[in-house]
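Lab notes, practical 5.
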Amino acid sequence: MKEKYKINFGSGIIPTDDDLSDRLFHAGMEMLETTGFYNTNLGRVLYLTEDEILEGISRAPKKLKLGHGKEQVSCKARHGNSPRKPIIEGGPTGAPVSEDIFEAMMQSYIQEPVVDTLVSGVLNTVCGQPATTNTPWEIRATLAEIRYVREACTLAGHPGMAI
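Output from the prediction step:
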């Protein structure tokens, strides 16, 4: 796709060139059409036509409200060099984090003034036990993550921040 659509970011990681943006969109469309997506409930790959993809895009919500109270933010599409500031998500974004620093790390992201929403890390252990997939430890770790993140939000003075 990179060669076919002549995609090259050069030194910047955010495309500001309209032609490059269009090529990225078309490459993404073709990639979704040809590779499909894996549906975990059905246990198989599903394929969509271009018309189905475009219909899905047209039906997608135009804005989302994330969080609640004074921390609620409105997430709307931005186009080109929009003067409206983007929503800033902070956090270790699914990276494994040691349980002894998890809550403090999350709080450090939450209290940053530029952070609007939070993306949590993943506990790699809980009660000293590995949070192995498909075991009770995975469930316990997930519940601990939720508790730690909510506590960190409260401690940082942002109880309504979206996660």
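Observations recorded by the TA: The longest strand covers residues 63-66. The chain has two domains: 1-60, 62-163.
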